[in-house]
Design goal:
43% of the residues lie in helices and 0% in strands. The chain has helices at 2-14, 32-46, 53-57, 61-67. GO terms for molecular function: phosphopantetheine binding. This is Carrier domain-containing protein.
C-alpha cells in the first residue's frame, strides 16, 4: 500500500507516469525542493511527520516505503480518490 501511494505522489510531483518500486526519486528529476514537497505530501496523507533525510538516504521508492513511519493510513490509501485537475478559464 505504501509503495502505491508513494508512486502516485511521485508521479504528481515529478510529472511522470509509470513510477515503479525500483525507481530513484532523483534519477526521475527530483531535487531538494521537490523532496521537501514530497515529505509534506506524504505527511498530509498519512498524518505522520516524515523526516526529509529519509528521501536522501533512501531515494529508491521501495526502499523509502520500507523506512517510512508506520501509519494506519497506509491501509486506507486506496480509498483516496485521484482528483483530475481542470485547467482553463471559467466563463463569466
Amino acid at each position: 500500500m505504501a509503495e502505491r501511494l508513494l508512486a502516485e505522489i511521485w508521479e504528481e510531483l515529478l510529472g511522470v507516469t509509470g513510477v515503479g518500486a525500483g525507481d530513484d526519486f532523483f534519477a526521475l528529476g527530483g531535487h531538494s525542493l521537490l523532496a521537501t514537497r514530497l515529505t509534506g505530501r506524504i505527511a498530509a496523507r498519512i498524518g505522520t511527520r516524515v523526516p526529509l533525510r529519509l528521501v536522501f538516504e533512501h531515494p529508491v521508492l521501495a526502499d523509502l516505503a520500507q523506512h517510512l513511519p508506520a501509519s494506519d493510513s497506509w491501509a486506507s490509501s486506496e480509498a483516496i480518490p485521484r482528483v483530475q485537475r481542470v485547467r482553463g478559464r471559467i466563463g463569466r
